[in-house]
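The instructor's notes for this session suggest beginning with a concrete chain rather than abstract definitions. Hand out the sequence below and ask the class to guess, before any prediction is shown, which regions might be ordered.
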Amino acid sequence: MHDDRSTVAVDVRALEVDGYPGLAQVPRDHLLRLEEDTLGMKAGMLRTDWTYSKGTYPCSLRDLEPLEADAADALIAAGVPVHEARRAPAWRGAFPVLVQGLRLSELRAALAGIDLPDDAIVAIRAADYPSQGIGSPADVRVEAGYYQPDPASGTSGWAFGGAIDYAEDGAIPAHVPALVLKPTH
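After discussion, reveal the predicted structure:
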C-alpha cells in the first residue's frame, strides 16, 4: 500500500513490456495493459509505481497499481502512455515474485532422518538473522523440536528446534513434538 493505493509488488523479471528492455526501465506513472490474467494479476490496466530493492530479495521489485476502467480511461485521455505487457517467457514461477522456501524434495530428505510421532505439528519459527549479516543467502533448516503453546493467548506460542529445554526444576515444560522449519536470511 503506497499513498493509500493498493499495489502489487512484481519482480522486474516477471513481465516483459513492449518497447522496453525490462519492467524496471518503464517510467513511473505509465500504464501497462495485461491482455490476460497472469501471475495472480487480473487482465486490465496497471499503473507503474516505484522500483526498489527489499532486504535480501535477489532482484529489484516494481510496484504496480491495478486501475478501474474509468480511471484508466481518464489517464489515457490525459495522454498517459500505454504499453502492452505480458508474462516474461523465462519466468518460471506462478507468482509475480519468487517464493523463497524449501523444496518438497529437500523436506522429504530431511524427514528421512527425523523420528517424530505422526501427530507432531509443523511449526515455522521466526527467522534468525545470520552472523554474516543481511544479504546472506536465504536458508531453511528443518529440525526436530517442540512447540510450546502460550496459555495466555490460546492458539499462539513458540517453536523451538533441537533438544527440549528443561525447566529449572528439571521438568519438561508443556510442549507438543514439532517439526520446526527455521528460516534464516
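Then share the key points. The beta strands are 8-11, 15-17, 31-34, 44-52, 61-67, 82-87, 121-124, 139-149, 157-161, 176-184. The helical segments are 69-77, 104-111.
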